Amino acid sequence: MRIPAHSVCTAIRDDIVAGAHPRGSRLTEELLARRYGVSRVPVREALRTLEAEGFVVTRRHAGACVAEPTEQEAADLLEMRMLLEPLGAARAAQRRTESHLKVLRGLVRLGQERARRGNSEDLRSLGGWFHETLAQASGSPALTSVLTQLRHKIAWMYAVDAPVSPVESWTEHGAIVDAVARGDSERARAVTAMHTERATGAHRLRLGSAGERADRVRNSQHPVNTAGLRH
């Protein structure tokens, strides 16, 4: 069975974000095909997509390499998110469906429960799911796509500290959902802007020297599980 290029793309992107492919390192089709257990065709397609997304660059005499973003480029991503997340919430207040509201309310309940228990790992994944659903509720595929790419890139470039007050953070999530449910786009925009600005302060830049990055990858690298790609 031919594994679709988008699945290979997701696997390579996830490994870039996790640091398995260090910034600046070469991405040869042959080695990637062997690593992910696929032919070179879906790898080639995946690399083209990742180049369009900004994770990969093509260099003369070197071919495809993992991009090396500057500190300014990383800072620009946070600024873009602070502008676009509130826009998405405002659109969601106008276009959300009952299905979106059901999922968002369920996530808020779970998040508030986990926050009281202090389970930070659960909170991180729930938070990602919350903001992904909120973007989808905007009814704008283009905006949802941009916000998804921003989240991937920010996760790649930044480490995120746990909120000082997880309960307060999830109270803000609840306020966003309340505004979206009422169709109050201005309130949804304002609360999301405040929440996003507060969350931005917890981001710490990961950028370091090539040697430091290579040491970190060698110490943390783990076998890639591509079983999910074969279904």
Automatic annotation (TrEMBL):
The keyword Acyltransferase does not apply. Keywords: DNA-binding, Transcription, Transcription regulation. SUPFAM superfamilies: GntR ligand-binding domain-like (SSF48008), Winged helix' DNA-binding domain (SSF46785). Residues 2-69 form the HTH gntR-type domain. GO terms for molecular function: DNA binding; DNA-binding transcription factor activity. This is GntR family transcriptional regulator. Residues 207-231 are annotated as: Disordered. The keyword Zinc does not apply. It comes from Streptomyces variegatus.
